[in-house]
Amino acid sequence: MRLTQEQTDRYHEDGFLLLESLFSADETAVLGAAFERDAAVPGPQRVVEEDGERVRAVYASHQRQPEYAGLIRDPRLLVPAHQLLAEDVYLYQLKINAKPAFGGEKWAWHQDYAAWRIADNLPAPRQVNVAIFLDDVDEFNGPVIFLPGSHRSGLVQSGRHATRSEQHLDPDDISLTPEQLAGLVAERGMVSPKGPAGSVVLFSSEIVHGSAPNMSPSPRRLAIMTYNSTANLPSWPGEPRPEYVVGRDTEPLVPLAAGFLDALEGALV
Amino acid sequence: MRLTQEQTDRYHEDGFLLLESLFSADETAVLGAAFERDAAVPGPQRVVEEDGERVRAVYASHQRQPEYAGLIRDPRLLVPAHQLLAEDVYLYQLKINAKPAFGGEKWAWHQDYAAWRIADNLPAPRQVNVAIFLDDVDEFNGPVIFLPGSHRSGLVQSGRHATRSEQHLDPDDISLTPEQLAGLVAERGMVSPKGPAGSVVLFSSEIVHGSAPNMSPSPRRLAIMTYNSTANLPSWPGEPRPEYVVGRDTEPLVPLAAGFLDALEGALV
């Protein structure tokens, strides 16, 4: 599917775009089940909540689960990513934030590109995030909140001031100060896109965003694919970050002919 | 002001009732300023957030601030309280939850009466809470969330299982389990009343409620007066709880002739 001119304009204006019910209930159920399988795989790609038990996020499910290996080439994700970046793209990162029922903790206000510049020397913010709702999202289960247009302010907070996790660069480590946020909110307001499972939010790697804890009995699982321009590769003076947080396959991705579920069923025949 | 039959019916059905903009902007500003003054008074009536610095709640402001001494007799609060309990009432407790910008922490899902039965041997749930919004309340600054009708389930969680604070009985200490909550939410859903500063929510001491942290740059200060039937007094086998958490003046309250601000200005002339 291609975005309309109005949709691409709105993305560039606001820094995000909601596409309601882009994936079917069947597809979303398949992705949810594949995530649950993957969340049970031990390893450093699995980040737990502060309680030390429940899964907070899992990285690189496409390396272990065929559903996600297909999903990253799904034309409903790749075609818009090509349109918005106007360049060839590859998968820089795939993570699934679990935000479990009653207590999935908040994610601090941050800009993704701040983390990626610090950790991976990523030269420019030429990324687009594509987030798929694996559950219905409402005001109670910790929806992502965006400050519309804040991607046009450049990097507000460029330094790292904490180390919450050894496994990944957590938003807490690069969170904006209350003063920075108050100024941006006064100017931009706040918006939290909601919708049924299968909805998709495209968002800039520079937009300021965060989310509250989950107060409800419904989980709020969100699969986020980050596509980066193939002309904008990371580099490391020393040891690179592990492959589960930074994709090494930088070949341009080519869209599947149809949705990931068709491709998967074809492969299983 | 008297509630209509429809309003009292809805209160008894849902366990809460929102009255938008019951107090004027002037009145709300006066109450907000009086709270800020009171929040600076050191003492055990002042509960701080986990950061040890910011104020989480202040008790019994009516004992120190004339605005709140008048407010508890304001006919806009007392007349509905009389109507809903159909008994003479006195002030059992007054607290102001500060929920400061960016980080006022969540309040666990709980029923107030569970706390009061445990701590004060309060014989029956013959209380009504009257909460005044001292700030605009939206989806981002941690609104109170109710499970409509849950007050009709009686006490779901009757024991105390933790001690978060030595100063007061914190909702964390009597929070419902995820299983209890999931059952109630499936049956009742969730609602979070929002509105401009000066709005009022009346709610039952048995309704299950909680709130998320404040993600926004706006505080969410909420003044809560709890009226109890004068025929339903607390008692203690040993030492009673301090007066700042349990009012000792159990004389029936008589409404002022006009709003608290008029009475206050009269007193100042």
UniProtKB/TrEMBL annotation, chains A, B:
GO terms for molecular function: dioxygenase activity. The keyword Transcription does not apply. The keyword Flavoprotein does not apply. Keywords: Dioxygenase, Oxidoreductase. InterPro entries: Phytyl_CoA_dOase-like (IPR008775). It comes from the Bacteria. Transmembrane segments: none annotated. This is Phytanoyl-CoA dioxygenase family protein. It comes from Streptomyces graminearus.
